[in-house]
Amino acid sequence: MEHHFTVEMSAGYDQAALESRITVLPCIIGGNVARTQDARISDYVEGQPFTIIKEVNGEDVDQEKAKAAIMAAVAAGQGSVNLKEQGCYRAAAVTADDEGLKNLLDTMNRCREMTITYVFGDQQEVLEGKVISSWLTGTVDGQIQVDHEKAAAYVAYLAEKYDTAGKPRTFKTTDGRDVEVTGSYGWKIDQGYETLALISMIQTAQSQPREPQYVMTTTDRNNDWGSTYVEIDLTNQHVYMIKDNVVVWDAPCVTGNVARGNATPAGVYSLTYKETNRILRGRKRADGTYSYQSHVNYWMPFNGGIGLHDANWRSSFGGTIYQNNGSHGCVNLPPDKTKALYDYVYPGIPVICHH
């Protein structure tokens, strides 16, 4: 007797174990196979133009695609799977023919020829393309990248060379002497802002002039105090108003009391503001009173609480009064002369105190 039986069978497998075995397959691990690389622009080489380095289609596989293809083959009962036919090998995403890459190459090579000319009054500082191109570090999202530290170092160099605020300068006094003066008044580059501006200019690959962004400026880039300023001669106890290089007003004065440690500081400042009918007060005592209170008709501060003003409590000015009977630091002026100076000055006018 012949008997025929039909048996339905199904194969099962441990998915976790399969995944574990797949992860250690040589084709997945890769080993010493050639890796796929996108086309890119060459690194900087002094004196050489940038070029495009062709893409490489290597033998490394996309692990997730390969894993999915193998598991699908196992589930279908297949004895083999062709990873290449399944599209599991990585392909370069950017080729040498990519128009975006070509445009970036053109931009980077134009950087080699560009110049940025910084202007500081009558002086100039030229940043050349051969330096600029050495700062290029590659591209990100279609834009050339600039080494921030190198750009910042260049801006710091400009600040060191051309900033004047806080640095000694030579001032020619009304009586013809050359004296050294310093002070907060002067030019000072905004280095953080300027570094970002420089990077943005480089990314345009266009030659251009540039005046830096400053956090502090003066009336004249070539000569901080220009041709109109107030001069206070602390040694000779005299104040001059110079307008367009001509002395249009002058008067004797009394400055800070040297014997009491209140000497008026030398330096280059600017007038903060001016005000009439002001009460000047000294240090406040514990009982609420002040060490002194003085009404002045004309108040012209230039260094914190130190300023020029009339002093109707004095009968004489100039000479050596300041050494033992000077002010608390302010510049006392004859009452009958002060209004004329008040009318000349304006907020921001340079005030130069010197010995």
Provide keyphrases for this structure:
355 residues; alpha+beta; five-stranded mixed sheet; four-stranded mixed sheet
In short:
By secondary structure, this protein is of the alpha+beta class. It is built from 9 helices and 20 strands.
Topology (elements, then pairings):
Layout: H1 15-23, H2 26-29, E1 40-41, E2 52-53, H3 63-75, H4 99-111, E3 115-120, E4 123-128, H5 129-132, E5 136-140, E6 143-146, H6 148-162, E7 169-172, E8 178-181, E9 188-189, H7 191-204, E10 208-210, E11 214-216, E12 229-233, E13 238-243, E14 246-252, E15 267-270, E16 275-281, E17 293-303, E18 306-310, H8 321-325, E19 331-333, H9 335-344, E20 350-354
Parallel strand pairs: 3-10, 12-20, 18-19
Antiparallel strand pairs: 1-2, 3-4, 5-6, 7-8, 9-11, 12-13, 13-14, 15-20, 16-17, 17-18
Descriptive account of the structure:
The chain is α+β, with helices and mostly antiparallel strands and 355 residues long. The strands form seven sheets. Strands 14-13-12-20-15 form a five-stranded mixed sheet, with helices on one face. The mean pLDDT is 88. Helix content is 25%, strand content 26%. It starts with 14 loop residues before the first helix and ends with a strand. Helix 6 crosses helix 7.
